[in-house]
Amino acid sequence: MSFPAPLWRAILAQTVVELRLTARRGENLLAMLGIPAALLLFLGSTAVLPAPATGSRVDSVLPGILALAIIATGLVNLGIATAYERSYGVLKRLGGSPLGQNGLVAAKVGAILVVEIGLVILLVGLAMVILGWRPAGDLVWPLLITAVALGTATFAGLGLAIAGGLRPEATLVLANVLFLVVLAIGGVLLPVADLPGAVGLIAGVLPPALLTETLKIGLGGSGDPGALGLLGVWAIGAVGLAIRTFRFD
């Protein structure tokens, strides 16, 4: 008589499967890697955005581009892909497996985390090699990786929560609308301090701005040290929401 594999082994196996599926979606992979890289090179070498009061242009652009990549990968790409997998019945077969709902969420978040760590290495490398960027202080790698992990958990959790409760067409629309809102008031490309009144106050406690602030510190710059704790609260809430609301079919 055989017994089910331990949950951690099932999650690890499904994470590998998710990474393989991601690698096969060539257009999505190109968008996840190519668009943030192109934005970094363009905004870091031109005067499209206002010049920062202190530091170089790359200092002000790089944290936001990293945050944008994490948000797009977790909220938009993962959310939309999972919604269509659910609609096509791909996930239904996993419903009765030892992986379970919690394991599937953990595997998808884990796979996205691997992709986004690669994105961070790529973008930081491009900034250093091509744009000649050097951090104002020392790179704080533990904080940087923690910020990426919490940002991944937050936005992947939100993407899975949307995908687990809505039809794929609705997920497609909502994920892209939220992404546009992030671009407008998320503090990713324009500082939260430049937003008017109450809009700036609200944006400052939302995950995009918190992630950008934490990434700034990890990249050797200055930022609000309390942002990491608030981002952690968002991460726990988003993953909890995904686990609670996600359905296989």
Explain what this protein looks like in three dimensions.
73% of the residues lie in helices and 0% in strands. The two termini are 30 Å apart. The mean pLDDT is 86. It is globular and about 55 Å long. It has one domain (7-245). With 249 residues, it is mainly α.
Spell out the key features of this protein:
249 residues, 0% strand
> Span from first to last CA?
30 Å
The arrangement of helices and strands along the chain is: HHHHHHHHH
Indicate the structural class: mainly alpha
Largest sheet, in brief, is: none
The residue-averaged pLDDT reads 86
Radius of gyration (CA) equals 18 Å
Uncertain segments of ≥5 residues (pLDDT<50)? Answer: none
Q: Domains counted in the coordinates: how many?
A: 1
**Spatial shape:** globular
Q: Strand fraction band?
A: under 5%
Count every helix, treating DSSP H or I runs of 4 or more residues as helices.
9
Total count of strands:
0
- Helix fraction by DSSP (H/I, runs of at least 4): over 70%
